[in-house]
Amino acid sequence: MTDTLFDPPRAAPTEPSESIYTVSQINHLIQQALTAQLSPMLLVEGEISNFRVYQKGHAFFTLKDSAAELPCVLWRDALQQLGFTPQDGLAVLAQGAVRLYEPQGKVQLYVSRLAPRGAGALELAFRQLCAKLRAEGLFEAARKRALPRVPRRVAIITSPTGDVLHDVLTTAWRRFPGLQVLLFPVAVQGAAAAGEIAAAIGLLNRQAAAIGGVDLILLVRGGGSLEDLWAFNEEIVARALAASHIPIATGIGHEPDTTIADLVADLRGPTPTGVAELTIPDAAALGAYLDGQRERLNQHLARRIQEAVAVCSAGGGRLTDAMQRMLWVTTRRVQAWASQVQAIEPRHAVAQGWRRLEDAQRRLGESPARRLKDAWTRLHAAVGALQAVSPRLKLVETAARFKGLEAVLRSAAPAQWRQARLRLAALQEQLQLASPRGVLERGFSITMDDQGRIVRRVADAAPGRRLTTRVVDGVFRSVVEP
User: Fold this and answer.
1) What is the pLDDT of residues 163-180, one digit of tens each?
2) What is the distance between the alpha carbons of residues 69 and 49, in angstroms, rounded to a whole number?
3) Stated pTM of the model
4) What is the Cα Rg of the chain in Å?
5) What three-state secondary structure class fits 8?
């Protein structure tokens, strides 16, 4: 096994050395040779065999191909971060360092990352992780956050190159001109992609308040094979999506493609442009909807006012009828009293009766008019209160606030560019002062001996030695005199 990793150069037989080594020294020399000859991080492809997880949580297994085997170690932390369960016979790609376990003289691959190889292995890992996350409830609709109806600021996590970003921005700004968009560029394919995506989601959640708030995150990527989209099936990405307090919508690949990120996200779009269509409102349609709502509210207010007027009118009519009935009853009573009085003293009784009748008629005539006037006063007060809460005033205030925000945004951009240019100029000046040429321009020089070593002390310039001195505009040579 060792011969396949470290093949010492062949040499002619020599006499045995008189030096005697211990086993520890030999193993240490082999470790040094391995470190010098091999890269500190290797990618090894093979098939898993004899996979075992021991009591402390570390895994030991063998990677093999048709001609050789390589013992491997997967520490507990790295094992817990895998998005699948390794099994014997599974083709994988292992990333790690080859080292010698000196106490036993055993060469091993210390694995830091492990990924399945081939469509069958990837599908197995996909199913395993799906089952695990589903059991934890990460796919449940009740856990997912509601998306804002009108997002003010949207963050897009995707690759900064390619057509996907252009298509999403074009769709978003066509539907809602002036929408504020933040781009978080990440790798969307390869070994580092999953970590970058998860880090971007976490950073957005931590810094949302500092950057003025984020209402929605769009995680998008163009189409590709199962291997190309595998970063979106990693557990680290699923955990970051579930932990986000900002709503996240995904548009990954084409419509048939479904990743674990799609299942955990708050909304899945069929394509990158499709998720932009689903989450970014159409400004024209929104304006028409608001106009319709305002018209319906005005109609509702007018109908309520008409109903109030009708109620008041009906109440006035009923009051008049009641007064007329009371007047008729009173008149009959007065007439009866008049008949009784007339029987006693006709003229005096009739005069008193008519006076009481005139007073009653005057009071009855004043009461309905006064009550009707009070009802109209209350009606006008109610109409004024309804007009004070009309949505028309709020729409005017909102439009003015939007114009103010737009002016602030337009004025802030040039100032940020000026500050950036000033910082760049200061950094260039510092770099110029620290450069070797800057040191030479200030009157210093560098002297080297004939072997190219810098002369720092007098002892380094032995008599007769040839020296080369570099100044700002060239070099000259000299010889040290005895």
Assistant:
1) 899 999 999 999 988 889
2) 9
3) 0.46
4) 45
5) coil
